[in-house]
Amino acid sequence: MQPLQNAGYDRAITVFSPDGRLFQVEYAREAVKRGTTSLGVKSDEGIVLVVDKRTSSKLVETKSIEKIFQIDDHIGAATSGLVADARSLIERARIESQVYKITYNEPIRVDNLAKKICDMKQLYTQNGGVRPFGSALIIGGIFEGESKLFETDPSGALIEYKATAIGSGRSDAMDVFEDKYEEGMSLDAAIDLALDAVYEATEGKTSAESVEIAVIEKDTEKYRKLSQEEVSSYIDQLVEKKSNDEEETESEE
């Protein structure tokens, strides 16, 4: 039961409780935690974005579930949380990117775009009649040969990462990143690492149909979503590796 002194501070509008908490923002973070796992990894050769889009019914067309989006030629984003909220944020990001390009005649910097989206998120924690966005975004891209990866929070907070995850499997995925991430990784190695993290986060329930992968390569500075055949190839390698690891463990015992 909610403590009496906190009653009313999470109703309708976002206001501070006596102990300095914003309950609506905390509830929005819980919505993100209930979402499927999304990950981003930065490498010397570019950015990797991976999402787990497992469905609750075999009747759902998995191709209709989109959780990785292209924002500009050189920027992509992976989402977790309320899908409708994420879609609204992505549309705003695309508009901001195009407005910047028309105004300044050059592509928007990845950090500038991430800050603009976080500014919008922050406004929705401060104005009456609105609620915070129940979605977090991992925004990754290449600008002038430099890879950038940011995680945005429903509060409007912004943190740059080398590798990060959002959603229900964040804790398990971050453990994998902490243990296995290395500076100077190739793009293929970054994809393998991200899939390894997804495998752990989903307790081994990983398949080509449930995973979506996008990359922004440093050489081209272009966003590209991997085909189903490419994803299947990476998943087959992952499953084979995990199977070999299990056999080695059993033989040692």
CATH topology-level name: Glutamine Phosphoribosylpyrophosphate, subunit 1, domain 1
* CATH architectural arrangement: 4-Layer Sandwich
Kindly report the average pLDDT value.
90
Order of helices and strands: HEEEEHHEEEEHHEEH
Q: Name the CATH superfamily classification.
A: Aminohydrolase, N-terminal nucleophile (Ntn) domain
**CA radius of gyration:** 19 Å
Low-pLDDT parts are: none
Provide the number of structural domains.
1
Record the strand order, biggest sheet.
Answer: 8-1-2-9-10
Report the strand count. Answer: 10
Helical content (DSSP H or I, runs of 4+) = 25-40%
Number of helices: 6
Could you say which structural class the secondary elements and strand pairing correspond to?
Answer: alpha+beta
The biggest sheet amounts to: 5 strands, antiparallel
- What gross morphology would you assign? globular
CATH C-level class: Alpha Beta
Instruction: Quote the beta fraction.
Output: 15-25%
Q: How far apart are the termini?
A: 48 Å
Description:
The protein is of the alpha+beta class and 253 residues long. The protein has one domain (24-244): 4-Layer Sandwich (Glutamine Phosphoribosylpyrophosphate, subunit 1, domain 1), CATH 3.60.20. The protein is 39% helix and 23% strand. The strands form two sheets. Strands 8-1-2-9-10 form a five-stranded antiparallel sheet. A hairpin with a 2-residue loop joins β1 (38-43) and β2 (46-52). The longest helix is centred in the last third of the chain and has 25 residues, at 228-252. The protein is globular and about 60 Å long.
